[in-house]
Amino acid sequence: MKRRRDGRRRSVSRRVSIALVLCLCASLARAAESPANGDVAVSNPVELQPLPELAVTRDKPLFSPTRRPPPKPVAPVARQEPPPPPPPPPSVVVLGIISENGDGRAAIRAGGNGDKVTRVRAGDDVRGWKVERIEPRRLVLTQGERSVDFALFTGAAKAAKTPERRVRQTKAASPSD
């Protein structure tokens, strides 16, 4: 029976020692959670702020519909001028075209030169435009991606000469009357 009592005492003492260890651990855990300098632990950091520092929040509530972030600074936009319109093609009158062995030349009168007749070949410059090719009845000038055709014996040239002939014919007819 003595053995039984000794066994019971040991089990009770084990249980008591386990309970003491658990209580000690719990108190140590609470001590670790509380600040060491004796201040009361707070769960909200705003509680630590003095009220005068929160005056802006009181004046402009955070969730007010009128509260907006400050406007972003607008960088001045440099106004770009539209590019100037491309220059018009030169005023050219094709007077004649000569083809020799696949090489063509043209006799032209460019506007601004008066009555001066100029001879041009492929690759020459006519008032900022390049002579691209000379065909049997056509002169092609280019400037960048733009292209202009001038034809030999166009209808407009014939129409311009027609009124002059009528004037000459009427003058010639009037003295013989």
Biggest β-sheet: strands ordered side by side in the sheet? 4-5-6-7
Radius of gyration, rounded? 53 Å
Low-confidence stretches: 155-177
Terminal Cα separation, in Å? 175 Å
What's the helix-strand series? HHEEEEEEEH
Shape designation: rod-shaped
Class derived from helix and strand content: alpha+beta
* Largest sheet properties: 4 strands, antiparallel
> Helical proportion?
25-40%
Mean pLDDT: 75
Beta-strand fraction estimate = 15-25%
This entry's quaternary arrangement is single chain
Number of helices: 3
Number of E strands = 7
In short:
The protein has 177 residues and is α+β, with helices and mostly antiparallel strands. The chain is built from 3 helices and 7 strands.
List the helices and strands and how they pair.
Blueprint (H helix, E strand, L loop, with lengths): L1 H32 L21 H5 L32 E9 L2 E8 L7 E4 L3 E2 L2 E7 L2 E6 L2 E6 L3 H22 L1
Antiparallel strand pairs: 1-2, 2-3, 4-5, 5-6, 6-7
What does this 3D model show about the protein?
- This protein has about 180 residues and is of the alpha+beta class.
- Helix content is about 35%, strand content about 25%.
- The chain has three helices and seven strands.
- Strands 4-5-6-7 form a four-stranded antiparallel β-sheet, with no helix packed on it. It has a three-stranded antiparallel β-sheet with strand order 1-2-3, with no helix packed on it.
- Strand 1 (about 90-100) and strand 2 (about 105-110) form a beta hairpin.
- It is rod-shaped.
